[in-house]
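Reading a protein record of the kind used here takes little practice once its layout is understood. An example of such a record is reproduced below.
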Amino acid sequence: MNDGVNTEFEFITMKHGEAFKAWSQEIKIVFILKGNGWLHMEEADKAYSISQEDIFVINSFQMHSIVLEENALAIALLLSPSFIVTFSPETSNPNINCKSFLYSEDKQQIFDILRRDFALAFRAWYKKESDLSIHLRSRIITLMDDLLRNFSKNKKRSGKESGRERLRAAVDYIHRNYRDSITLADLSSHTYLSASYISRSFQKYLGISFTGYLTQVRLLHAAALLRGEKTITEIAYESGFSSPSALIDAFKQHNGITPGQYRRSMGEMKRSHYQPDVLVEEGFSTSFTSLMKYAEQAEEVVTLPAAGTCEISANISNVRCQLSHNWKIMINAGYARDILNASMQNQIVNLQKTVGFRYIRCKGILDDDMMLYTSDFYGKISVNYVYLDQLLDFILSTGAKPMLELGHMPSAMAKNRVQIFKRPVYLSPPADIEQWNHLISGLMEHLVVRYGIEELKRWLFSPWISVDLHLFGFFTLEDYADVYRSSYRAIKNICNDFKLCGSGCTSTSSQ
């Protein structure tokens, strides 16, 4: 039971005199309802002027501050990383570069789409347009989809950000485990950073001590729970405080009021939320007029044609030929490491009994979690086919043949060791193409010894990952051609009859 507190996303209002310096997990989408202000981005060391109808995004763990002038007002949508992963599992820690105030009026069309998405999502939340949570979630997902497709950037981190990036693992651990007792020693053991380094980094990059930051995280969760019905004692323990008195003391020190007073003030705000003197005909405060006009523009009345009926008859007694069920050729089973999971294997076995696919596609056979190509502390390379052999033995046991994608790049060989997905995946060319050629040649030789050339002639091989992944910016089309060519030659040098195919793709758009 969560007492109605939404931990996936939340709308908040922002006004003059409130402190908005922050560095947190949530992605923040901000719309200026009225007035002017300033946005300071620490990593860019710049302050931007912001005004009515500007819309911009603050990324996860991006230090910033927002200062609004008197009578100015803004609204922000906070999105937790876990919510983004639910609808886009391969998107982890997206880097969104969205600042409408950097563009002239004639370049605002793409931002108007975001303003529309934001307005429709806010209206669905504010007016509770549906009792089904899927309606509101779909509005939020539409907004994020437009952001990711049009504003997602994948740039290398600058040296100035490297220290903050190292601290990020410690902060992430705090946000996931704030309910437990956490010490600097705990952070050190889970992040492989020294306790003294973590302590210094909190002061350097956040301007606050480790214990102060941990307390603030716990207070944020306590404040959210105070909007529900749980007791102060329940909230204290669920927020990580050692006792109710510890919560009360910390809350009063940071907020100037007790949790009970805060809860009562929230109740008064709810009761005054719908005062008639601040409403317009549509049921919104006049403060939201600049936003809601985009929702009104998005609504077009569509008249559906009258439903008609028709009758179709078919003679099934005269069958001329059997239908070819092409959909039975292949099933995509996902990442190689996941296929070693017992529950996943049970599902595949059941599918094979009822459907009988010819091929089972798996990707990521060279990912770090398959432990096929790794290096130790001293840089010594180890090659281990144990997990791969278990995977292939299982696929063959189902009566299907493998379709193997030879990727992604092992971290020990990657030129660019940057991860953007939740899984340990590197979209990178090899640091040494000859080293890659040696890896693929050795892999194919192992498969021939274990399974035989005649068996491998029935398999499908994809020389590398999907070509459209170059859009993330971690390799060029020239890099892709080099890796693909090297893999192709290594495979064909073993046997020219081996079947090669394209990989799966990540986009339906034509290039």
